[in-house]
Amino acid sequence: MTDDTTEAVHSEGPSVSGHAEDPSAFGWLNTTDHKRIGRMFIACSLVFAMAGAVADLAVRFDLASANGHTVLNADVFVQVFTFTRDALVLGMLIPLFLGIAIYVVPLQVGAPNVAFPRAAAAGFWGWLVSFGVLIGAYLGNGGPAGGWDDGVDLHLLAVAGLVLSLLVGAICVATTTLTMRAPGMYMDRTPAFAWSALVTASMLVVSLGVVLGQIVILYIDHRYGRFFADGNYGIWSRIDWMYRTPQLFIYVVPVLGVAAEIMLAAARRWVFEPLALYFTIGLVGLFGFGAWANFGITTEGADIVDGLEGIVLVGLYAGALAGTMGLLALLGFTVWQGRNWPRPSTAVLAAVGAGQIIAVAALFGLIGAAVDWLQVAGRGIDGNAPLSMTTWVTGQQSLLIYGAGLLGALAALHWWAPKIWGKKLSELAGLGSFVLIGGGAFLAWLGPLLSGAFTEQPQFVYHDPLLTTRYAGLVDTSGAEGLSILGAIGVIVVLAGVALLALNLLVSVVLGKGADAPADPWNGLTPEWLLESPPPLGPSQTLTELSSGTPLLDAATNGNGSPIGLETDDAAREEVPA
Q1: If you classify domain 37-566 with CATH, what class do you get?
Q2: Angstrom distance (rounded) from CA 141 to CA 163
Q3: What confidence tens digit (pLDDT) does each residue in 345-390 have?
Q4: Where are the domains of the chain?
């Protein structure tokens, strides 16, 4: 994209709203300011994260019993099971990082606001209302396989509303990065997080559109014919792919952007080959894409003997693993080059931990997919083999949602809290959240892994949810119940970590107990640290002179040729034009 195109859109773009912000509490209802919209996404998604985790806890306790359902009955179990996926992915994982991107990306690229700010605001309110409708559908026994037919339709409409709202937000973020950069900032000079947000937003646009089309088909079929989806029971199996790997890798690409931002700031240098950084981040998003084709290679009972579906799935995991490992190696080498080892803060520890968890999830998926395909191909049978890895889907979800997602969010919130709210979060509480979320995610993954390895439990039976009671016959007396309960304990620990994070935000931000933050408390590199913390309401200050995504690093090295990292005092920063 040329400078002329960027400058034309950036200077007086029709996408930037001239709406005057109301500073009162009522102003939150009609806001078009990206900073307020981002904050609302962040706050609500954390609430939905706890709701989803509580539901997941009930499901895991039920699956840990050899005596049938103990917490939920068979009908309610199905509803709660599907609600956990809706809440943790559409209610937490995607909107949490979308909210961070809506807030941070315009500041990083020098834009006055997010593109199409009214659409971004409509996306938030549509997402919030749709989630309320979703809860109502479940309460009325109207989720997938529900007994209330109109409620099943209502569930489909609610999911469609969630997907459409998130799709609108993704378009706003992608358009901001592509067309509203400051003149002189090319795509290969954008900050790492802005690039990762663009990768995720682009992949959401092409994959969530497939979800919408599928929901339309399911709605018409369920309401008028019931031929395609086998009544209520077939609905979940047609949309479950968006809650599973490899699709989950798309949603956690911003975590890699957060890790890159924090580690490069700690190293006080840019990577030796910037294109490699963009390539590895993009690779993870690319190999997470499969859209509805994932249904044919991941659902229980899929035929992976005829054709190359099994090899394709193995390739997707291999590509995601290669991208993640390449990025981590690149960041590690950059830190080693600078000899400027980062202080073990919450942001640094959570960012490194989240990146490593993505690599572990990709490796875990690669092994499971390879074993699955080899066993099926070797036996010459159709469908999934009776593996010792039958709960690997649940384990991967735990790694990517609880581990990578929540740890990445913890890192991002501690890193950008000064810019978002003007307050620093408590480091002690942050380290506590890191230990709890990281340890809990590990247990939530280890439980399904060991349980599946020793008992060959299935994850879920789509055709008839009542058949999930066969868990009782598959859990033997050799300690498998203890292995399954290990995952439930992990979810409890994760819940404690998220609650501690919410308490940290409440005390530090809402009650104002956190330390006031200067414009750049972390010696950051990217343009947002040139602005005051937090930026005032309304259009942000446009940084029209930007020519790269690391102006503070450029100012510390240009002119005197000194080694990177020597000029970090406040006096040097005041010389940087804002």
Answers
A1: mainly alpha
A2: 21
A3: 999 999 999 999 999 999 988 887 777 666 655 544 444 434 333 4
A4: 37-566
